[in-house]
Q: What sequence folds into this?
């Protein structure tokens, strides 16, 4: 056949090949199917409440009714397997459209580009969409410069107080703006040997971590160049404070508080809600009265605590992003669904309007008078979010190690800080390059 | 040079196959690793240190190999136009870049292969230094991009972590080996293509020198051609002049002859039948008019008018009828051949022949009756004009052998024989015909009056010898006379013959013999003399007469004694001269 015909056929063939390649590269089959959601089966707050998919099912029903969106999910994935399961889905290119995210996965997945940036969707929403959320909750879902996920449910960390001990010792509930010094005073006052057997059996605090100290002293562990900068007076203050606290701290964690031997324990609000004397809840802390306050503030900080947040994101490879966004809104911005959190889950709604509604607060306060509206709101508003970048968990670990080393062996904290700072930076530079 | 080209294309084929294999190998390794990781549940770990999101495992080979297919198709196309080539190159670069991107640039040899293909393609067309530079620059830019820009793709080594140690090293080693082979092939390609170009340059130089030599020759030939041209021009002019003369002769002569004859007839008629004369004059006018038309047409080298209007047969018939009317001659015709299949120039010739023949017959031959026969007995066309009612022309042939054949077939009474003919001349033909058909009379009608021809023809029995140039009437008269038994010899020829005969007769009669002795010869002796006169030897005579050699010898001696002759030779001469023996 003539050369011209041959050329035409070859051109056609090459175009076909290119189209095939492009097709497989850009699309995922099948194209139209119900919205897929990824969720784990047990509670985020690690409380067995039997309401595994209740919230999700309600949201699905609502979405179907109001927006005619079909939603499906794969059930039975345990929280402990969820990360691996999601990773497999990513590898198979079969990622569900809407994903619930565990905090330990957030940084990694966000840096991989698993999540679709939501800024575009948010900007198309009417005025006031963003402000209906607690800003700290919203910030939980931010990664580097874009909004990677929406907050669904959160729980601030509060200082839980054993009111029975307080009363016994004749102390008042700490104020909302109590300081470290006051905290130390309290601990000092109660840490004693009650039964005179030579061993201390009443402690001031258990489970107070270096990160709590840092957070409440407004320490940012990384500077603008994303290098570790520990050589700051705030850090030194915090370390000194921690040093002092060491002797007042119980080494045997939560059990002691459960048994009523410890005055203070920083805990997530969800735990508080889980162990409220509700008819269907497990009454864990039943042999003593307890309440909660904000965390104590350092000399340079405020009464803040960290926020634990369950996030929801949209897959960047989803073929139905618009629909996915509608469903995400149903989950996170719909007052009805959000208020169900208080019925079926232990966390707190991320919507201000829901959490601060009178009914909810009335319910909460029923169990504990010390939980003022302001406490919760304050905690939520001022919650601090750790830096979000890829290897942050690892970095945090390294820093923690460094601190514990300093705390255990140090004679000159300042000098050691400088040394450790440099060492850490070097090591992390080696391992991660420019993280 | 062809060998170089063959090796180049062979090398390219090898490179194509190698690269396809490499791509297949790499994508297979990666896809296999990814599926393996998925199966063993270590996806999360894999993703932890991954820089970007992977494609589904099976998609990688599909996409990469499809792109390879696209590139290959584009390369196989042998586009000629520059824009098409450029478009192809751009698409190929794009595909190659995409493939490398998918593989996170683990294998950069793909670009080398593309470079080789492009060089080959440009070698087929014309190399421009700028193109090569551009390609080289492109390659460098590619490498630079790859090394310094982070595309956020999962590196090949990351996939390798799936494999156990010996396998991992093996894979790496293989990859490096293949990449090295590709590089070596590329180098080989460069060497070959340089050599090819070098040879090509040599060839071009050689061709250049050839070209200049040929150019010189061409210049000379051109000069010569100009000379020939000039000659041709003058020849053409001459030819044209001749043609014109001929045409004028044909047309004007024909017309004028017709007019003259017609007018002569009118002169005769005018007193007797004025009205008939008028009619005659009118037809003469027609002839004149026709003549004018024909002259005009001749000038324009056009065909005769009638031939343009009618077919040959009708044209001939109309010409004949015109002639008849104008001259009052009786012209009858019979066309036995098919006249419809001749070419235009052949028709012209036939037409002119007939016209000319008629004109000549009437003007020069003073014929009053013309019989025209056109036949095609053996392929050649015969046109015979018969001017006498009493004579019927049977055939006309062109050489001696045909004469014999025709005589066999037609049995004519008289043959008008030409002397100079191919195959067999007239003299020999005369002899043979006279031998076989002695009753046929032969008239030699020729232009040659050589003594030899005359003598020979008469010797062999020609009944007449006429020279061409006589009038038709004279010819008819001669034919009639010969038919009736008289010999016809042209006057000049006759004198020649008499002279010849005188010569013969007056040759020195050396041999004289007494008459008395001759009478005393016995019959047997006369036989012997006859044989001697024929030139036979004694032995031959003895055989012929069934006598012994000795007897013959005795007899000859006796004869010689009686006639008083010296020897057999004298005897023979005397015998012939005296007419004793008729040869």
A:
């Amino acid at each position: 056949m003539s050369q011209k015909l041959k050329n035409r056929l070859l051109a056609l063939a090459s175009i076909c090949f290119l189209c095939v390649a492009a097709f497989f590269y850009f699309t995922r089959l099948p194209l139209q199917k119900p919205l897929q959601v990824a969720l784990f089966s047990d509670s985020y707050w690690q409380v067995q409440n039997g309401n595994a998919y209740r919230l999700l099912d309600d949201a699905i029903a609502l979405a179907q009714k109001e927006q005619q969106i079909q939603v499906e999910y794969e059930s039975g994935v345990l929280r402990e397997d969820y990360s691996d399961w999601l990773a497999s889905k990513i590898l198979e290119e079969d990622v569900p459209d809407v994903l619930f995210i565990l905090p330990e996965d957030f940084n990694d997945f966000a840096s991989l580009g698993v999540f679709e940036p939501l800024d575009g969707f948010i900007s198309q929403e009417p005025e006031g969409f963003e402000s209906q959320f607690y800003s700290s909750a919203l910030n939980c879902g931010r990664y580097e410069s874009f909004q990677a996920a929406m907050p669904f449910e959160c729980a601030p960390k509060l200082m839980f107080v054993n009111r029975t001990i307080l009363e016994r010792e004749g102390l008042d509930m700490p104020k909302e703006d109590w300081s470290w010094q006051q905290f130390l005073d309290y601990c000092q006052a109660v840490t004693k040997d009650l039964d005179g057997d030579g061993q201390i059996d009443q402690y001031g605090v258990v489970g107070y971590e270096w990160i709590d100290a840092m957070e409440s002293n407004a320490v940012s562990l990384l500077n603008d160049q994303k290098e570790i900068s520990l050589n700051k007076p705030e850090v030194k203050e915090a370390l000194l404070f921690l040093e002092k606290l060491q002797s007042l701290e119980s080494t045997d964690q939560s059990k002691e508080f459960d048994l009523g031997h410890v005055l203070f324990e920083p805990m997530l609000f969800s735990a508080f809600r889980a162990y409220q004397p509700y008819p269907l809840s497990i009454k864990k802390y039943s042999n003593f009265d307890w309440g909660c306050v904000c965390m104590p503030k350092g000399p340079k900080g405020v009464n803040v605590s960290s926020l634990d947040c369950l996030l929801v994101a949209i897959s960047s490879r989803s073929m139905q992003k618009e629909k996915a966004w509608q469903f995400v809104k149903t989950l996170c911005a719909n007052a009805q669904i959000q208020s169900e959190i208080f019925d079926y889950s232990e966390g707190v709604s991320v919507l201000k309007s829901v959490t601060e509604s009178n009914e909810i607060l009335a319910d909460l306060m029923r169990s504990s008078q010390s939980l003022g509206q302001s406490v919760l709101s304050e905690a939520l508003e001022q919650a601090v979010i750790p830096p979000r970048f890829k290897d942050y968990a690892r970095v945090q670990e390294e820093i923690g190690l460094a601190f514990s080393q300093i705390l255990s062996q140090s004679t000159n904290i300042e000098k050691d800080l400088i040394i450790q700072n440099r060492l850490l930076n070097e090591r992390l530079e080696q391992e991660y390059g420019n993280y | 040079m062809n060998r170089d080209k063959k090796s180049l294309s062979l090398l390219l084929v090898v490179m194509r196959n190698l690269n396809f294999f490499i791509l297949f190998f790499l994508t297979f390794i990666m896809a296999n690793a990814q599926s393996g990781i998925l199966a063993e549940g270590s996806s999360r770990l894999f993703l932890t240190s991954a820089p970007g999101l992977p494609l589904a495992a099976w998609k990688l080979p599909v996409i990469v190999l499809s792109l390879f297919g696209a590139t290959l198709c584009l390369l196989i196309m042998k586009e000629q136009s520059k824009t098409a080539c450029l478009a192809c190159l751009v698409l190929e670069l794009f595909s190659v870049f995409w493939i490398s991107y998918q593989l996170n640039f683990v294998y950069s040899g793909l670009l080398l292969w593309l470079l080789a293909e492009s060089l080959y393609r440009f070698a087929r067309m014309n190399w421009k230094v700028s193109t090569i530079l551009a390609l080289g620059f492109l390659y460098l830019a590619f490498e630079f991009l790859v090394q310094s820009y982070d595309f956020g793709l999962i590196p090949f080594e990351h996939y390798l972590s799936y494999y156990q140690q010996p396998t991992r090293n093996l894979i790496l080693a293989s990859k490096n080996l293949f990449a090295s082979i590709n590089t070596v092939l590329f180098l080989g390609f460069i060497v070959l293509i340089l050599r090819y170009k070098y040879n090509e340059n040599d060839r071009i130089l050689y061709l250049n020198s050839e070209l200049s030599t040929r150019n010189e020759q061409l210049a000379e030939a051109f000069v010569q051609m100009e000379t020939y041209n000039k000659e041709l021009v003058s020849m053409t002019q001459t030819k044209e002049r001749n043609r014109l003369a001929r045409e004028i002769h044909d047309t004007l002569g024909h017309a004028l002859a017709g007019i003259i004859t017609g007018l002569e007839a009118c002169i005769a008629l005018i007193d007797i039948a004025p009205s008939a004369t008028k009619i005659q004059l009118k037809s003469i006018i027609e002839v004149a008019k026709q003549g004018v038309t024909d002259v005009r047409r001749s000038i324009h080298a056009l065909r005769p008018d009638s031939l343009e209007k009618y077919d040959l047969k009708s044209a001939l018939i109309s010409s004949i009828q015109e002639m008849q009317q104008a001259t009052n001659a009786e012209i009858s015709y019979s066309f036995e051949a098919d006249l419809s299949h001749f070419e235009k120039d052949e028709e012209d010739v036939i037409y002119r022949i007939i016209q000319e023949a008629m004109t000549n017959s009437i003007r020069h031959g003073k014929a009053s009756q013309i019989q025209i026969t056109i036949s095609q007995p053996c392929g050649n066309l015969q046109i015979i004009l018969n001017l006498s009612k009493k004579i019927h022309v049977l055939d006309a042939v062109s050489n001696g052998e045909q004469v014999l054949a025709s005589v066999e077939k037609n049995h004519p009474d008289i043959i008008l024989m030409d002397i100079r003919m191919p195959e067999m001349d007239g003299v020999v033909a005369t002899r043979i015909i006279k031998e076989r058909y002695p009753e046929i009379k032969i008239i030699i009608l020729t232009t040659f009056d050589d003594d030899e021809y005359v003598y020979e023809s008469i010797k062999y029995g020609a009944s007449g010898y006429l020279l061409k140039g006589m009038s038709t009437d004279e010819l008819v008269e001669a034919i009639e006379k010969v038919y009736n038994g008289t010999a016809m010899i042209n006057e000049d020829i006759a004198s020649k013959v008499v002279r010849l005969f005188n010569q013969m007769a007056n040759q020195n009669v050396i041999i004289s013999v007494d008459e008395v002795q001759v009478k005393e010869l016995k019959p047997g002796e006369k036989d012997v003399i006859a044989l001697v006169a024929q030139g036979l030897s004694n032995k031959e005579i003895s055989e012929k007469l069934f006598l012994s050699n000795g007897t013959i010898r005795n007899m000859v001696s006796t004869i010689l004694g009686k006639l008083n002759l010296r020897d057999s030779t004298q005897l023979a001469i005397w015998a012939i001269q005296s007419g004793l023996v008729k040869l």
About this structure: The longest strand of chain A covers residues 150-162. Residues 390 and 435 of chain A are 7 Å apart (CA to CA).
